[in-house]
Each structure stands twice: as C-alpha cells, then as structure tokens.
Write a structure and sequence with these properties.
The complex is a heterodimer of chains A (340) and B (279). Chain A has 340 residues and is an all-alpha fold. Chain A is built from 14 helices and no strands. Chain B is built from ten helices and eleven strands. Classes of the chains: A mainly alpha (340), B alpha/beta (279).
C-alpha cells in the first residue's frame, strides 16, 4: 500500500515540476515576444497605415494594457489552445505548424535512426578498443561530423551525391512533377504515397530524404558516439565485469550482456534528447535543402517578424524537451531497479 | 596432501608498460587444501590469482610450469579458458557492492554460471540456483532470488558470490580478500560457510588476504609474499617458527588485546629480500 502511495506522490511531484517548467517557459516566450525588435502592429498594418489605424490595431492586440494583464491573457490563450493567427497566412498559427511538422518529423526520425545506428556501435567499438587505433579513428570520424557546419556538408553533399554522382534526389521533399500527386492524408509523404499506392512518389521521397537525413544523422552521431563510449568505459571498469569473466563468459558476452545491458537506459535518454534537438535544430539543413518543415517555418517567420508564429514555435520546442525529459525520467524509473 | 591440483613453478608476471615484473619466480603447489597468500598491498598476491585464471589483459605471464589438473594453463587458448573459468576454477571477489551487476537480479546472476556451463533449461538453472542459495545458508532463497544487489546486505551479497562461484562445482577456488569488505561480525559467518563448502566438496582453496590471523585460522599453509616474491611458506600452526625477518616483522606489527602498551614495531623492508630467497 505504502509503495502505491509513494508512487502516486512521486507522480504528483513530477507533474508539479512539469507545470512549473511550463510556466517558466511561458514567461520566457512571452518576454521574447515583447522584447523582440519587431513591431507586430506594423507587421499587420503595413508601412503606410495612418496613426489611427495603427492605434486601433494596437488596442485590438491588447498591447495598450499593462504587461501583467497581457501575460495573463497570453497564458489563458495558450492553455485554451489559442495561439493566435499568423500574419503571413491569416490562419491559426497552430494549424500552420501542424501542416509543416510532418516534413520535419520525417527528416528527424530518419536522421535519428541513422545517428543512433551509427553512433551506438561506434561508441561501443571505441570503448572496447580504448586508446587503440580504432578508438582514435572513431574519435576523428565523430569529431569531423561534429565540427563540420551542417549547411556546408549539406551543400557539399548536394554537389557530390546529387550533381556529380546523381545517386540521390536534390532539394525539396520530392521531384517537382510529383508535387500534389498524392493526397495529403497524414502529411507524412512516405506514408501518404504508400496509402495512395504511388511507388514512384515513394521512391522519389526516399531519394530526397536520404541525403539530408544522413547528414543530420552523421552530425547527431558524433554526440551519441562520445556518450556511448564514456558510458561503456564506466561499465567496463566495474568489478562486476571481472565477475562475469570469472563465471566463464567470453569478452563479447560480457560486453553485450553486462556492460551494454546496463547503459541502455542512459542511451535512450541521449537518443531522445538528440531527437528533440533534431526536431528543432534542422533549421540550417532545411534551408539548404528547401525542406518545407518546422525549421524553415520558424526562420521565415522570424525574418518577417510574425511574432505569434515565432512564440508558438519556441513554445513547442520547449514542450518537446520537457516531454523528452519526462520520458527519460520515467524510463529510468522503469528500468533501473535502484531508483525504486 | 593428495595429488596436487595446481603446480606453479617460477611464475613471473609483467604488466604492459611496467618497468619491472609485478610477480617474480613464484612457485607453489596446491592439493585439496586451503592455501593462504598474505602480503602487503601491491605485493602481487591478487596478480597471482588473476594470472591463474588468465584474466590479466596484456600482461606477460611466464612460468616453467603452470599446471592445473590435466591442463597446461600457459598453453590454453582463450576459447579453452572459457571452459575452465567458472566451471573448474573460479574466484570470489572482494566486495559484493561492486562485484555484482547492480541492475540484474541476484538469482539470474547466479543462474548465469549454470546456463553457461551446463545444457540446462532456465527452469533447471533456477532450481539449481535456489539449491545453491540454500547451500550458502540463505534462509528464503525464493525471495532473495528476485532481489537486486542493493537490496541485500554485504554478508548476503558475499554468500551470493560464493553460490555463483561454487555452483559448477569447481576444483579450485581463489578467494581474493573475500571478507575484507564485510563487517567484522559477519566475517566469521561467511568464512564458515565458505570453509564448510570447500571441505565438503574437496575444493582446493587459495585465500588471498592481508589478514594474518584470518589465514592462520582458516588455512592449512600460508605463503608470505613481499614485492612480487614468496619470501616464506609456513604451515598455519607454525607461525611461531617463522624464519624470515619480513614474516617476523609482520607478526611483530600486530596489536594484541591485553598486550603491553608499547608502540608497535615498524615493519622493516629491505631491498635485498626482493633479490633472492634465503637459503
């Protein structure tokens, strides 16, 4: 009984901390919106509007009221799911974002699969061969991925694999003549094209996805490799590794069953956080590849000063990270018996 | 002493990158008896234990003879050693806080030895595990089986360790300071369990320790090591007849309850002891 109550209390505590973080996030986005050197009124009424029109819109937006009242109103709006209208499209911001999100999710998901698929084995390999040439080679490889700016590798990648070799599709999500050929049922092009049974569209979409996803994945793998390596080294130095060897397990079995088994939870956290970073951080690669996703949406609106859109984007990124942190907390609790 | 289980002759071990050998010219034989190995930290006693299991990655091990039963340990490949470790020769490590995998259940860690060496089902391995846990005086094996290492005491952890290492009925067990991480009160209990099992099953035991009184009471013979060499071998009952000045120094440096309240003797260390054995 008492364990049940303790668990309940802990869940309540966690919920409270999420609520507080969220409140902080709202304060932050609110002030970002107010401090930005962009004039939301001017963005609506245009350069040539009369002072009367300007004042009217100023009052309509509630900007004449005290700051705290504005904040309360903002909070009320957000909590009821009203994120305001986009100045550029005239549509609710949230609708625009939901429209561009699938393209980014597709890209980030492929990227994280590549990043984790590359980073985790390399990290284990480096740890097991610590200070030998394999370790150094892995270090150089991941340092390269980490330090090359993604817009540069993006352009070089396009030049080599698209322009010269012709192995992959160019920019955009698919070849031009396929645009609009499949109905956007989910927004995920890969799924939509399969639902429509259009294999050629699907193939074109994969062709276009593979290069930006691989480049993003490579840059994400740098971090995953380094973290995997250090997690593994921690475990490999533990005395229970010797115990496993004394029991008669081979080095490989010891490494995978005992050491790797014990870092799985930590790895999930790292991969989840990298995934979050990819969701919001694909800005540069989306620009280079003309990828109509969240990153591009954010940059475009930042440039024209569409504050409702920018604030909502920042809010969403924050919420994604709060949720990923929550997820890793829950995973620790589920899989590490010591936290019970 | 019956036919020896282990014959070691002129064993030397050098760690990679080290300027001198960690162990030099160590020779001894072991029957179905309990052999103590004592010495200061860094005297090479643990290194000898690990060398017997060939668990010193990178270290160079040389010997005139390193025979375990019918096996020439020096000639065995890693694949062949996998069949020896845990099955015919095993080792009890020092501190269960570190030597048990923190996120696996105690029972499955013990069962791993069984599954590794015998063609048994999981259910059979579990039955064997419960039997072993009972053999090390764990009163409620079913319950302990499902606990995690942090949920059991140090004494119980060390009994689990003993169960794990004796499950496959090895012929030789190396106990590397098996009780130095334990409370004084449970030390004796764990030692008695180990002693009972070793005697019942006719296992050869090498007890590595820096506790002179412990090896004196629990072993048949004792090797005294200093700076990688065996300086003297004594029968447990004949410590009073120790010849070597280092052994005498160790004995003199022990405090005694009720003894005279004088400063304890400072251990004398002479470089020449590392060069040659007294005749």
């Amino acid at each position: 009984m008492s364990t049940g109550r303790r668990r309940l209390r802990r869940a309540a505590g966690q919920l409270a901390s999420v609520a507080i973080t969220l409140l902080g996030l709202l304060v932050l986005t609110f002030f970002i919106g107010r401090m930005m050197p962009a004039d939301p009124v001017r963005a609506i009424v245009g350069e040539d509007a009369t002072p009367e029109t300007y004042d009217m819109v100023h009052a309509q937006l509630g900007l004449d009221r005290p700051l705290w009242a504005q904040f309360l109103r903002y909070m009320g709006d957000v909590l009821t799911g009203n994120f305001g209208q986009s100045i550029r499209t005239g549509q609710p911001v949230i609708q625009d974002i939901l429209h561009v999100m699938p393209a980014t999710i597709e890209l980030a998901t492929f990227a994280i699969v590549i990043g984790a698929g590359l980073g985790i084995p390399l990290g284990v390999l480096a740890a097991v061969n610590r200070d030998r040439w394999i370790d150094h080679a892995v270090r150089v490889f991941s340092l390269f991925g980490h330090s090359m700016p993604i817009f540069w590798t993006g352009m070089i990648g396009l030049l080599v694999f698209y322009a010269w070799l012709g192995w992959v599709g160019g920019s955009g999500r698919m070849d031009y003549f396929y645009i609009g050929m499949v109905p956007g049922r989910t927004g995920f092009l890969l799924i939509d094209s399969l639902l429509a049974g259009r294999w050629e569209v699907f193939r074109s979409a994969v062709n276009h996805l593979i290069l930006p996803a691989a480049l993003l994945g490579y840059s994400a793998s740098a971090y995953i490799t380094r973290m995997t390596r250090s997690f593994m080294l921690d475990q490999l130095n533990q005395e229970y590794m010797t115990t496993a060897r004394v029991k008669g397990l081979s080095r490989g079995q010891t490494i995978w069953r005992h050491a790797f088994g014990n870092i799985r939870v930590q790895l999930v956290t790292i991969v989840a956080l990298s995934y979050g970073a990819l969701l919001e951080g694909a800005v540069l690669i989306e620009t280079v590849f003309a990828w109509p996703g969240f990153g591009q949406y954010l940059t475009n609106n930042l440039v024209i000063g569409d504050m409702n859109a920018v604030m909502t984007c920042v809010l969403i990124v924050g919420v994604i990270f709060i949720l990923l942190n929550l997820l890793s907390d829950v995973l620790y609790r589920l899989f590490d018996p010591r936290t019970k | 002493m019956t036919d020896p289980i282990l014959e070691v002759s002129n064993l030397s071990i050098r760690y990679p990158g080290a300027s001198s050998e960690a162990v030099r010219g160590v020779s001894f034989t072991l029957g179905r008896e309990r052999l103590g190995v004592v010495g200061e930290s860094g005297s090479g006693k643990s290194t000898v234990g690990r060398a017997l299991l060939k668990l010193l990655p990178g270290a160079r091990i040389t010997a005139d003879r390193l025979r375990f039963e019918d096996l020439d340990l020096l000639a065995l490949s890693e694949a062949e050693m996998l069949k020896v470790r845990g099955r015919r020769m095993s080792m009890i490590l020092q501190d269960p806080k570190f030597s048990l995998n923190p996120i696996q259940r105690v029972g499955s860690q013990v069962a791993e030895t069984c599954l590794r060496h015998f063609p048994v089902s999981r259910a059979e391995a579990k039955a064997k595990t419960l039997e072993m846990l009972a053999a090390v005086n764990i009163r409620d094996p079913e319950r302990v089986h499902d606990l995690y290492p942090h949920e059991i005491s140090g004494g119980m952890g060390q009994r689990v360790m003993i169960a794990m290492m004796l499950l496959a009925d090895p012929d030789l067990v190396i106990a590397d300071e098996p009780t130095s991480a334990l409370d004084v009160t449970v030390r004796l209990q764990v030692l008695n369990i180990l002693d009972g099992l070793v005697r019942d099953r006719g296992i050869g035991l090498i007890m590595i320790s820096h506790d002179l009184n412990l090896v004196r009471n629990f072993c048949d013979r004792v090797l005294i090591m200093y700076a990688g060499r065996v300086v003297e071998t004594l029968k447990a009952g004949e410590f009073d007849k120790a010849q070597h000045p280092y052994t005498r120094g160790l004995l003199a440096a022990q405090p005694r309850i009720g003894g005279p309240r004088k400063p304890l003797a400072v251990l004398d260390r002479r470089p020449e002891w590392t060069e040659e054995l007294p005749a």
